[in-house]
Amino acid sequence: EPDDMFRAIRHDYPILGDVIYLDNAATSCSPEPVVEAMVEFEHRYRSNVGRGVHRFTRIATQRYWHAHEKVAEFIGAEEGVTVFTKNTTEAINMVAQGLTWTPGDRIVTTILEHHSNLLPWRSLEKQGVTLEIIGILPDYSLDMDEFRKALEKPVRLVAITQASNVLGNITPVQEIATLCREKGVLLLIDAAQAAPHMPVDVRTIGCDFYCFSGHKLGGPTGTGVLWMKKPNLIPLMEGGGTVESVTDEEVVLIQGYEQYEAGTPNISGGIGLGVAVDYLKKIGMDKIHEHEENLTNRLIDGLSAIERVRVYAPANPETRIGVVSFTIDGMHPHEVAQRLDDHDILVRSGFHCCQPLMSALNLPEGTVRVSIAHYNTREEIDLFLATLKEIISQ
Ligand code: PMP
């Protein structure tokens, strides 16, 4: 029974003992091996990285470096540079600020985007860059005709999410990557919601930049990743740790991730992130995806059968992840979330940092959002559904 395997790992997450945690799209829980790796750093070898020769710094440097290797492997990156960041937001800003823009440059993005994959591009408008926003169809899928049309004129970069943090739809990044390659357009993928929930491979996709958050895949908070195919971004910051040599005449930057990680990094966080991807890999991303898909189907079917509930989800199970938005007629989303919290069920409510999408969907109060991780169970989904029914009928 595949479900039993996922039940067995719950002892790695003591935090799940008291609540039903269904806010995984905001941040997910760290398994014990991740927490232990962070504590081990504090207890046994806390020191700086890339500096000095003593034993602590040697261990820390080796493990911190190795964590980058593990993350690169996790996303199938055989080339390019894998940089540790604070989060997805920082990764996207590093690209927006690290490319050189010319007035008239066009960027294509979509209405599905999180503010973190919209505002860094909008801020370039003051440099004369223009932004085109592709819409969605009534079934919530991207309007690919509009997309293709937008690429008929010269475009510098496409920035798109691989999975929506509101509607849960998976976007056709493979097809978009092919279009971008044909036209010589740079492609940035926001994988904040995709990387934790499905097998991903930057080689197969063929993108230029791949951004995601460590804290949404069981890694420590304050961790994220920017993978870039070619290390030709201008670093957002310079300083200690980024240089090979500094003389009066010149500064030679290190040709690795170090050039993009100025100053002392989040060392225990980075090491913890390496453990988190190992942990997921051991379970198997395909198994995780399948388990979450089963739970999502159960959740959407259950929600759709409740009176007064409106579900905003793509119909095809193959194109969705375990992020499900809904509203209840006559109840504010925050009230629903508060009432669920009274029953120890934790979900998100509001705009989910996607206000343009909420306007497009005409949802002025936002939605309630349930988001699933691999450690959630059928029983939790059923209890959530039963509790929601009870709240609605009161
Ligand atoms: N993009 C998407 C699709 C997200 O869901 C999120 C987090 N909600 C972000 C970007 C931003 O992630 P972070 O807060 O870790 O920077």
UniProtKB/TrEMBL annotation:
Residues 20-384 form the Aminotransferase class V domain. Transmembrane segments: none annotated. Coiled coil: none annotated. Belongs to the class-V pyridoxal-phosphate-dependent aminotransferase family. Csd subfamily. This is cysteine desulfurase. It comes from Methanospirillum purgamenti. The lineage of its organism: Archaea, Methanobacteriati, Methanobacteriota, Stenosarchaea group, Methanomicrobia.
